[in-house]
Amino acid sequence: MIVTLDGPAGAGKSSTARALAARLGWCYMDTGAMYRAVALMALDRGIPLDDSAALAELAEGITIEFRDGRVVVDGHDVSTEIRTDRITQATRPVADAPPVREAMKRIQRRMAEGMDVVTEGRDQGSVVFPAAALKVFLTASAEERARRRHCEETARGKSVSLTAILTAQSQRDEGDRTRAVGAMKPADDAIIVETDGLAPEAVVDRLVAMIAELGRP
Ligand code: DC
Question: Please, are residues 182 and 122 in contact by the beta-carbon 8 Å criterion?
Fold first, then answer.
């Protein structure tokens, strides 16, 4: 069974998807991490970020695994490295490239085959798994999302203003919404869940209840 969790950055997708998968004992697929991994390998190998054919070939040629909450590429743990600002920036052109998205769609479908999976991203319900048993689009107000990101950054010891975060966030949202292929949008049959003021556990409870209504687990 497949449950898709899409939505903008800061809506609480990652923590919700991870906790939901753990609660159900299912696999968790972090597709943002997969795009990040391709960007990291492209920089490592000197592949130009505007060479979409070479990027797609790279995506097809590497092995990305999720092991015990870590992201492992060709046997190396890249979990920390893919979260740096350098990689966040390099990931955008990678995720915008239609041939990379086609390759990712194939890879993600292959990874989920025959498994119970909670998959998280921007296009999982709308493009990659249109027949998923449950499609959720998690969202929250721009202010709430920026506030959460600000707390995270501050906790990491980074000094960055809320205004700067809001500005960068609206630029990212715009890019995600308007990309030619794989634009972030809820699938027609997605359930929209607003997470403003909701603790991650409360969101997970709600999703578990929705899955139980489907007759599983
Ligand atoms: O969710 P994240 O910040 O780790 O995602 C990293 C980048 O990948 C971000 O630019 C959005 C993009 N992305 C995408 O285009 N499609 C997905 N299914 C997941 C992420």
Answer: yes
